[in-house]
């Protein structure tokens, strides 16, 4: 342990959600350096250690303790810094975060496995999450051949399956049930749900109305081909964020992931704002139904998924941007070419309208058909701030740095809008804004595109 000060553990313990990964990697590091004996000491018999041996043992134990403490998150370290020996700290963390009787954690892991979806995630990263969840579940539920334990787990799985599909209005009841040392039977849980449903009327919402409202919301959500663009502006109290676990918003509106959406100081918990200023283009399927009416009829599945939305555009913002570019001494064509040098220069020369990099647009909106290929017809419109509707004429491919990106064909637009969100997502790159230029940098190779 002479070089113990150079040891750094690969995983930082933040709580119960990553305890299994932390414990396994930490054990591997300590075993590799011959320090595991301080976590699981071997019996020494009745022979006492000499003063020099005891001093050396204490020194090595403190070195292992320092290694463990350096791998703890600040909040965890503050809570358990009182532990004076490595074994004491290890056992304490195991009792707190590795409790195999923690029904709440078992439920959370099973729900996470049930809701896990690859979507656009790379397979290796997705499989890592998948395997990590199963490994934690196996730790919480070790393999056994005892019939009583197997029957108990089968009954628990029935209860867990029911709790996963309950209306969010029963979240408080679910937490109360999972706090128990022993999970109630399915019949007992059903009885508690019936009681809770009757008491929901005291909060101003009847149980039947809650269930029907949930069914209606579920039905409307599945009516849109692009579910990620659907947001309900009704009662947000029943929405739970998958990232921060706080009510009132969904993951795509979480200001921990999107700081510009942080609520203002004088707004309520369910009011959100965009700090980037008024959005120039916002995809908002079903977002404000009293203002937006989307009538897309497209048989092509891929085209429908992209075009099934209405968008808000402030024409004043576009005019102001064009004016500011002219005043700065840079022509719009020059700015467009620097911002999107992936296009063929001949295409840019032939383009009759400027190309503008828009950080507020969710999709590319191109008015020059020369910049697009594989153009397919599509129906729909974009509602701008003054209430006018600008029609969507089609959907096609926009060539960006030797890659195709889907774009909306909007011939009535005065400019070609290049979405920063769509570009960085499709090309897996960063968008770097300078005073007069915009550059795109590949995330994997760090090369400028």
TrEMBL record:
This is Retrovirus-related Pol polyprotein from transposon TNT 1-94-like beta-barrel domain-containing protein. Residues 265-290 are annotated as: Disordered. It comes from the Eukaryota. Pfam families: Pol_BBD (PF22936), Retrotran_gag_2 (PF14223). Residues 356-424 form the Retrovirus-related Pol polyprotein from transposon TNT 1-94-like beta-barrel domain. It comes from Noccaea caerulescens (Alpine penny-cress).
């Amino acid at each position: 342990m002479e070089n113990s000060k150079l040891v750094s553990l690969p995983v930082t313990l933040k709580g119960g959600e990553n305890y299994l990964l932390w414990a396994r990697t930490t054990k591997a590091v300590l075993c590799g350096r011959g320090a595991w004996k301080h976590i699981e000491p071997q019996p020494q018999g009745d022979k006492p250690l000499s003063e020099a041996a005891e001093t050396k043992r204490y020194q090595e134990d403190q070195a292992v303790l320092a290694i463990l403490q350096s791998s703890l998150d600040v909040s965890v370290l503050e809570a358990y810094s009182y532990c004076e020996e490595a074994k004491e700290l290890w056992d304490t963390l195991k009792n707190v975060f590795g409790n195999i009787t923690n029904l709440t954690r078992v439920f959370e892991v099973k729900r996470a496995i049930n809701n896990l979806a690859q979507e656009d995630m790379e397979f290796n990263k997705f499989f890592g999450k998948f395997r990590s969840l199963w490994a934690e579940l196996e730790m919480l539920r070790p393999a056994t051949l005892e019939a009583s334990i197997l029957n108990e787990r089968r009954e628990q799985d029935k209860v867990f399956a029911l709790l996963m599909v309950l209306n969010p209005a029963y979240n408080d009841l679910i937490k109360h049930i999972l706090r128990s040392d022993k999970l109630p039977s399915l019949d007992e849980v059903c009885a508690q749900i019936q009681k809770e449903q009757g008491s929901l009327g005291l909060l101003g919402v009847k149980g039947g109305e809650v269930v029907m409202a949930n069914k209606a919301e579920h039905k409307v959500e599945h009516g849109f081909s692009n579910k990620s663009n659907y947001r309900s502006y009704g009662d947000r109290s029943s929405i739970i964020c998958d990232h921060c676990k706080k009510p009132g918003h969904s993951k795509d509106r979480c200001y921990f992931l999107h700081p510009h959406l942080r609520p203002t100081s004088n707004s309520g918990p369910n009011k959100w704002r965009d700090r980037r200023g008024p959005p120039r283009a916002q995809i908002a399927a079903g977002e404000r139904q009293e203002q937006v009416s989307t009538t897309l009829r497209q048989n092509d599945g891929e085209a429908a998924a992209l075009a099934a939305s209405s968008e808000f555009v402030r024409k004043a913002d576009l005019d102001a941007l064009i004016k500011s570019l002219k005043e700065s001494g840079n022509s719009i064509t020059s700015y467009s070419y620097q911002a999107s040098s992936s296009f063929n220069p001949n295409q840019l020369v032939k383009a009759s309208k400027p190309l503008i990099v828009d950080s507020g647009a969710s999709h590319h909106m191109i008015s020059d058909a020369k910049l697009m290929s594989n153009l397919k017809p599509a129906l729909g419109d974009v509602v701008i701030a003054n209430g006018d509707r600008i029609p969507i004429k089609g959907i096609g491919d926009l060539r960006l740095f030797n890659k195709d990106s889907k774009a909306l064909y909007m011939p009535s637009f005065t400019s070609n809008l290049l979405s920063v969100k769509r570009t960085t997502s499709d090309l897996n790159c960063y968008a770097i804004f300078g005073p007069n230029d915009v550059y795109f940098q590949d995330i994997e190779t760090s090369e400028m595109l």
